[in-house]
Design a protein that fits this description.
Layout: H1 12-19, H2 23-35, H3 41-59
Helix pairs in contact: 2-3
Length: 67
């Protein structure tokens, strides 16, 4: 939900491809909040890496290729 405003100018398929990488980290966070599951070092590092990757893809403008 937080990435929707930043992706509103792109097509729905592009938005879905970008945000789909956040499903596993979001599920891990929900399990931590709702069920008190522990997040290990690997889970936290994966969550951070996936979030940074999606943020980079969403915030960078597409480069134009010139021939």
């Amino acid at each position: 939900m937080l990435l929707m405003p930043s992706c509103k100018n792109s097509s729905p398929l592009n938005w879905l491809r970008k945000v789909s990488y956040l499903v596993p980290p979001a599920t891990a966070l929900e399990a931590w909040i709702l069920f008190g599951e522990r997040l290990g070092l690997w889970a936290l590092s994966g969550l951070i890496i996936a979030s940074i990757g999606v943020a980079l893809v969403v915030t960078t403008s597409p480069t134009t290729q010139s021939r």
